[in-house]
């Protein structure tokens, strides 16, 4: 198969032939229809989230089943499917309790095994993780459901319980931030979004953000608190860096909630944060990572019921050979929108 492999930190991905993946006994092999290029892939590419080399990145994918393992019962060759980036075993006590994202034996394509910057990818524990691709859904959008949209949905509904009429503050207008904005608006929240890229602020405004904050200013948290009448009820940190985490905490009103969506890595694994704001404001802090596979129906039903069009998230459809250039964009303030690999021959 054709694949893009990481052979050294920050080195151009090597485009060429790679062995076809071996089908897990309880899994499937997919022909990849689309794979998103995510900031988490950048952490792998830079070595901030190190993996064994050589390695095929890519964790945000959808595809067509081309092979099934002997222990797979629910899926057949030809099925079009999507999957969360955390492939849980489905059998341990945490999985049985519905908490698949903390499964102790989880498999993560693109992290703990080869991912989907390739024509094919292996998916373990298929019966516990796969969801049928909705009829007519654009594969590029379906790929985004594997990480950015699902992570935002679980943060807002499964962890921090956003309610209609509340102020939602989002720090970072990348893929997960824009997903949180669109989902939050559809849930009836009022949304404020902060970023340092003017084009991202313009996109947020166009997508319904009531307040946009240029975080290059002297006091962005003060600006957000003032614009929202004392602070947001729920803040989302969507980058995984110290500055935005501090801003997310200090932009909350008293008794507010903050959910850490961005993945801290590299220099940001340990952060010096204003814990006096947590204490005096009596804030609640949530961590979140991915979404349990069993919650896909709630998300898909919501998208259908609200007729929410998430396609504005998709900014660029690229070829496999463009992946390195897209990863390099995360070294600085990246342009608006999500890039998705849709052509694995280019």
Essential attributes:
346 residues; alpha/beta; Quinone Oxidoreductase, Chain A, domain 1; Rossmann fold; 6-stranded parallel sheet; 28% helix; globular; EC 1.1.1.1; Alcohol dehydrogenase; alcohol dehydrogenase (NAD+) activity; ADH-like_C; NAD(P)-bd_dom_sf
List the helices and strands and how they pair.
Layout: E1 2-5, E2 14-17, E3 28-37, H1 39-46, E4 61-68, E5 80-82, H2 93-96, E6 120-123, H3 126-129, E7 131-132, H4 139-144, H5 148-159, E8 167-171, H6 175-186, E9 190-195, H7 198-206, E10 211-214, H8 220-227, E11 232-237, H9 242-250, E12 252-260, H10 275-281, E13 284-287, H11 296-306, E14 314-319, H12 323-328, E15 338-343
Parallel strand pairs: 8-9, 8-11, 9-10, 11-12, 12-13, 14-15
Antiparallel strand pairs: 1-2, 3-4, 3-6, 3-15, 4-5, 5-7
Helix pairs in contact: 5-6
Enzyme class: oxidoreductase
Keywords: Oxidoreductase
Protein name: Alcohol dehydrogenase
Q: Any overview of this molecule?
A:
This protein has 346 residues and is an alpha/beta fold. It has two domains: 2-147 and 291-343, Quinone Oxidoreductase, Chain A, domain 1 (Alpha-Beta Complex); 152-287, NAD(P)-binding Rossmann-like Domain (Rossmann fold, 3-Layer(aba) Sandwich). 28% of the residues lie in helices and 23% in strands. Strands 3, 4, 5, 6, 7, 14 and 15 form a seven-stranded mixed β-sheet that branches. Strands 10-9-8-11-12-13 form a six-stranded parallel β-sheet, sandwiched between helices. Helix 6 links the parallel strand 8 (167-171) and strand 9. Helix 5 (148-159) packs across helix 6 (175-186). The longest helix is centred in the middle third of the chain and has 12 residues, at 148-159. The radius of gyration is 19 Å and the shape is globular. The model has no long low-confidence stretch (mean pLDDT 95).
């Amino acid at each position: 198969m054709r694949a893009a492999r990481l052979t050294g930190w920050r080195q151009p991905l090597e485009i060429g032939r790679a062995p076809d993946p071996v089908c897990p006994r309880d899994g499937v092999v997919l022909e990849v229809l689309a794979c998103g290029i995510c900031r988490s892939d950048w952490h792998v590419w830079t070595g901030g989230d190190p993996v064994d080399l050589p390695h095929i990145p890519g964790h945000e994918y959808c595809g067509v089943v081309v092979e099934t393992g002997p222990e797979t019962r629910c899926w057949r060759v030809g099925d079009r499917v999507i999957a969360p980036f955390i492939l849980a075993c489905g059998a341990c006590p945490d999985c049985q309790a519905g908490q698949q994202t903390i499964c102790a034996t989880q498999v993560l394509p693109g992290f703990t095994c080869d991912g989907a910057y390739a024509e094919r990818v292996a998916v373990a524990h298929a019966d516990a993780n796969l969801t049928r691709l909705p009829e007519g859904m654009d594969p590029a959008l379906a790929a985004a459901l594997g990480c950015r949209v699902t992570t935002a949905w679980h943060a807002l509904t499964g962890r921090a319980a956003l309610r209609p009429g509340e102020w939602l503050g989002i720090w970072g207008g990348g893929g997960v931030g824009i997903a949180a904005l669109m989902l939050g608006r559809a849930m009836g929240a009022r949304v404020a979004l902060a970023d340092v890229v003017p084009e991202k602020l313009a996109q947020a405004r166009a997508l319904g953000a009531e307040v946009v904050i240029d975080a290059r200013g002297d006091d962005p948290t003060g600006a957000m608190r003032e614009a929202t009448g004392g602070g947001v009820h729920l803040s989302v940190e969507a980058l995984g860096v110290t500055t935005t985490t501090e801003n997310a905490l200090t932009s909350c009103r008293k008794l507010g909630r903050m959910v850490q969506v961005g993945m801290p890595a590299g220099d940001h694994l340990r952060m010096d944060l204003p814990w006096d704001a947590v204490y005096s404001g009596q804030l609640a802090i949530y961590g979140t990572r991915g979404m349990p596979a069993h919650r896909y129906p709630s998300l898909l039903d919501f998208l259908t019921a609200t007729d929410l069009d998430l396609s504005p998230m998709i900014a660029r459809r690229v070829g496999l050979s463009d992946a390195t250039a897209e990863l390099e964009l995360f070294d600085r303030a990246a342009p608006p929108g999500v890039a998705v690999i849709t052509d694995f021959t280019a």
